[in-house]
Structure formats: structure tokens, C-alpha cells
Amino acid sequence: MASEGAARRKCALITGVTGQDGSYLAELLLDKGYIVHGMKRRASSYNHPRLEHIMDKSYPNSERFHLHYADLIDFGSLCTILRDTQPQEVYNLGAQSHVQVSFQLPQYTADASGVGVMNLLEAIRATGLEASMRVYQASTSELYGKVHAVPQDEETPFHPRSPYAVAKLYGFWAIKNYREAYNIYACNGILFNHESPRRGEIFVTRKVTMAAARIKLQKQECLYLGNIDAKRDWGHARDYVQCMWLMLQQEKPDDYVVATGQTTTVRRFVEMAFERAGLPIRWEGEAGSVAEMGVVASGPRSGETVVRIDPKYFRPAEVDLLLGDPAKAKRVLGWDPQQTSLEQLCNEMVDADIAMQEDPTAYIRF
Ligand code: NDP
Ligand code: GDR
Question: Could you tell me how far CA 306 lies from the centroid of its own chain?
């Protein structure tokens, strides 16, 4: 009986499993009964803390989770992992995903986040798995870039504003092209920003919630930020991975915007986080950048947390406003964009960061 059950199990491969979304998606798929294979890169030190709890023998279904070495820029490794695991669903979450870093690493970003998609699609064809496999591509609201219209939906024109977005544009079209050319079941999820306590520490929300926790516990004095007037449509990563799965369960492949339909400034997010941590804020900045942003600088006052504007965090080209229209995902996939409010998300992140600053081994609980 056990082997019959195992034979019926669906099998998925997640690239980028060590990242924020990868860990939530692995949990979701294990919970749904899948065998889950994840791709990890070689690193000189331990690089999968977000998966530690899943790999612990006490985690329900941990025996169905397997990690393999491979890399999106190594075509041979992709063929090997596909041949060895024979998944029915592939979720391509692997990427150099930081927008500002992509200006410093443009070619690597193009290779990993752009050509990597083509490598994966070609590896699927090379292993002869294209008829039996469904592919999810982690596309992004960064494709919209310079604002042409809001809210942004599946028909809004793209205008990428960074090497990262340019690379993701290539991946987006590779998916569409292989769908049309080879009839591969492949979907683009155009996901707007999504965050969680597992968010990488140099993305703005996590940088802010970690700073709030560290300042509260007197481990840090000041928070330095760039453009606090940028507006983002922020949701919870746990809610967004559900939508990735839903896309691959439909009769026909398609592309979907995944967003909350609400937008908020970075400045407001900082206020929410510091309020949750019980810290009053005072904004400071260099002359020029402060004036430009309408932030009033003043001398130090006791009892206030200083948030400083540092030009080093400004990008050569900025995406000023993202606001998605998730109507199609709601209508076709039955996905609920309002599962977690921004306030709930922010509170969860601040509370988790305070707990982790108090006890670093607490990471596993979040
Ligand atoms: P993370 O940065 O947290 O994770 C990225 C993952 O990609 C990590 O596992 C990383 O491995 C892996 N990776 C990097 N380079 C390669 C490579 N050459 N080969 C294989 N794997 C690689 O990103 P998120 O989880 O936040 O995002 C997941 C995906 O969704 C990304 O593609 C991102 O661009 C996209 N996206 C994210 C959004 C968001 O708001 N979070 C919104 C829209 C799209 P390692 O741990 O070793 O670095
Ligand atoms: P983003 O996320 O670029 O939207 O890409 P990020 O959190 O890095 O920036 C959001 C906005 O905040 C402004 N900002 C700062 N950003 C960072 N990282 N650090 C700062 O100190 C800072 N100060 C202000 C930025 O200028 C920007 O306007 C994320 C990534 O997850 C991508 O992979 C994904 O595709 C998009 O979201 C959708």
C-alpha cells in the first residue's frame, strides 16, 4: 500500500528553494503530499537556514524533501537534476533577485535571472520531459518599471529600469515563446513585492524591521535608507506561493498578476514598523536629498530613533510606483489577494525580528 501511495504522489522541483519563497513553497507542496526536490548552490558555508526546520526529522513529511546541487547557469547540472528527479512541476524561483545589486553585477544577473530560464527550458527539452512537465516562472512587477499606467495588469506595457528587470524580461518572453513554439505548459507569475520574516536582510522591509528590533534592543543606533518615497504593493510571501501552485493546476497555461491592489510608501512602512516596536522616529538626511524629499532635519533629541537618508542607497534608475490589479488571479484561480494586510505583515516581521534578536535560534520558528 505504501508504495502504491508513493507511486501516485506528485513530484516537484524548486529552483531557488533556499530563498524566501522557496522555503514557503516547499512547505506548501509537502503539505499537499508532493515529493519535493530543491536545488541548492554550492557555497563555502552553510546556506540553507530557511530550510533547516523542514530538514529536521521531526518535521511532518521531511522524508519527502530532498536537496541537490545544481545551478541555473550550469546547463549540464540542470539536465542531471531533471533526469534524476523527473518532476511533473518545476518552479523556477532561482535568480539574482536584488535590484540594486544588479547594477553592480549586470552580467551575472543576466546569466542567472535571464539566460538561466532559457537553460532550464532547453534542459527540459533535452531530457524529453516537455510533454509531461509544467513550469512556473518567477516573473516580476519590476517588468513594469517606469510608470505608464496604474493599476498594472497583464496588459500593461513593460519598461524595465534595471539589469535585473531586463534579465527578467528575457525570462518572461522565453516562457511565452516556449509555450507557443513547443506547446510547453509554462506560466509567468507577475508577482508584486512579497515579504515575510524570511525575507533577505537587504530588501527594504526586512532591513527596516531588523533595524527596529536591533534599535529597540540597543544593538544598533541608526537606520540608513535611500528613496523613502518609492511606493510598493506589498503582500505576504506565504499567500503568494499558493498562487504559484494554483497556476500550474489549471487546464491551460497562462500569465497572471499577483498583487494586493494596494500601494504604500517606504516611509509609511518605516513608520508602521517603528510604531510596532514602540520607537518614535526622527528623519534626518543630507542637505539636498532631504530638501528634495521634504524631510525636515533637526538636531539630536533624546528618546528618538534616527532614520537617515543615505544617497548610497539610491538607484541609477528607480521604479517609483507599483500597484497591481490581481483581478484575473482572483477570477480564474480563485486566489484571495487580501489574506494578510500590510499591517499584519509588518507586525509579524517586527515581532519575529525582535524574537530573533533576543534568541538567534528562534529563526527556525518563522
Ligand atoms: P531570494 O533572493 O530570497 O532567493 C533567490 C534564490 O535563488 C536563492 O535560493 C538563491 O540561492 C537562488 N539562486 C541565485 N542564483 C542562482 C543560480 N545561479 N542558480 C540557482 N539558484 C540561484 O528571492 P525570493 O525568494 O524573494 O524570490 C524568488 C523569485 O521570485 C526570484 O526569482 C525573484 O526574482 C522573484 N520575485 C520575487 C519577488 C519578491 O518580492 N520576493 C517579487 C517578484 C519576483 P542562494 O540562497 O544560494 O543565494
Ligand atoms: P525591490 O525591493 O527593488 O522593489 O525588488 P527592495 O525592497 O530592494 O526596494 C523597494 C524600494 O525601497 C527603496 N529603498 C530601499 N531599498 C533597499 N533594498 N534598501 C534601502 O536602504 C532602501 N531605501 C529605499 C528602493 O529604492 C525601492 O524603491 C523586490 C525584489 O524582491 C525583486 O526580486 C522583485 O522582483 C521585486 O521586489 C518585485
Answer: 28
